[in-house]
Amino acid sequence: MSAERKRVARELMRRMRCKTSLHSFMLNIDVPRSPTPALRPDEDLLGPAKDLMPIHFSKILEVIQRTMDRPSGRAIIQAPPGSAKSTLLDAVAIPWEMGRKPGSRILLLSY
After folding, report:
1. Backbone angles phi, psi at 91, to 5 degrees
2. Under 8 Å between Cβ of 31 and 92
3. Cβ(83)–Cβ(52) under 8 Å?
4. What is the distance between the alpha carbons of residues 85 and 79, in angstroms, rounded to a whole number?
5. Contact 36/68 with Cβ under 8 angstroms?
6. Is 22 exposed, middle or buried (0-12, 13-18, 19+ CB in 10 A)?
7. Residue 14: half-sphere exposure toward Cβ, Cα within 13 Å
8. For residues 79 and 60, what is the distance between their CA atoms, to the nearest angstrom?
9. Cβ within 8 Å of residue 89, ≥6 positions away
């Protein structure tokens, strides 16, 4: 297999992981107000995306994905100020859901 075909195959696998996993999607986009650029990791070499981020990010994204996969899913996330709740919801989860399910109806409330 040529190097170009391998690169294309890796890119397709990365995109499929991003479509099915909110954790992978987050690591592959530039998150606003984030001090680091997107990692775009090769999860085949480094392991699952949820292990490549802070544990509280992983847990929040896990709750969000589980909620979005449920019909009429609802969740309340309570965490200290500055733990990236709003950023993970409005800059990561909503674009991911809209890409997966065009025409989705999403209601985001915040105090």
Report:
1. -100, -15
2. yes
3. no
4. 7
5. no
6. buried
7. 17
8. 9
9. 64, 77, 108
The encoded tokens of residue 73 equal: 């899913």
pLDDT band for 36, please (50, 70, 90 cuts): low
**CA-wise closest residue to 14 among 28, 29, 2:** 28
- Give the model confidence (pLDDT) of 62-107 as tens digits: 999 999 999 888 888 999 998 888 889 989 999 999 999 898 888 8
Whole-angstrom CA distances from 94 to 36, 52, 59, 101 are: 20, 21, 17, 10
If one counts every other C-beta atom within 10 angstroms of the C-beta of residue 57, the result is 19
Beta strands in the chain (DSSP E): none
**pTM of the predicted structure, to 2 decimals:** 0.84
